[in-house]
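stuck on whats below:

***
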Amino acid sequence: MLSYFKKKKDTPPSNETTTPQVEKRTVPETTLHFHHDWDLSLQEKYVYRYHHTQLPPLQPNQISISKIDVVSEEGSYMVNAFIRSTVERNIHFEEITLLLLDETGAAFARKTFDLETMGHLPPLACMPWIFLFSEEDLLVDSFPMHTSWSLAFEWKQKTPAVHELSLHDSWETTLQPEEKVRLQNIVTSLPPLSAGEVNFMGIEAQQQDDGALAIMLLIRNGSEKDIAVERLPLCIEDASGSIIAQGTFTLDDFTVRANTSKPWTFHFPASLLETNTPDLSVWKAYPPQLT
């Protein structure tokens, strides 16, 4: 097995008839809200309230958009719609893309809107908003106004980024090609990280001739942002389940780029070890606050 330790610098870490009980799920209800800049008459508010009562129920934690009507004027189409949320927190929209769908579900118009001016949608709320489409936004020759059209969000699915191996400059220059290949194989063979997850994986542990313990970890960054590691407290457990070493390491200019894994070796001096004969047949490393 290839060993990396010789190349690293020290870095000090729930009727009377009995029936089966069926769990009842609470159907969330939304409250109608109007934007603070909208100056509506009592009649207009009454119409919105009526349409609001006709909306189908939503599931918990759902965001939905439903048409009210459309007004055509000089080549433009003012689509009046409800945006609803059964999420129990404020929802802030920035850019959204809407699709207008015909009776078959095929898109006949598409446009991206900036909803910064809308502000936030309160928890468990329903807010009307007007979306202006033009002839240029149509994907067909004309707007099928007298048919059962609908509108929907276009949820863009991001292609998962490829998780790659990232090496510190000092490793890049000192590792042999076969060692880099081994590390790359480890990175590609690991289960994918959840979005935003950062974790540590032990690669190799070895007790040195002077009694010090050298631990090589793979710092895995599953987020879409780079993370800078300056101070890293670590605990090491051996096969007995006992903590055999702990310490805090200071790292200089150590960044783990988005969607990459970076290896690093941490050296615990013999004075920090709880035993002189740790059983390293099975071991794990973790920051103490995660226990």
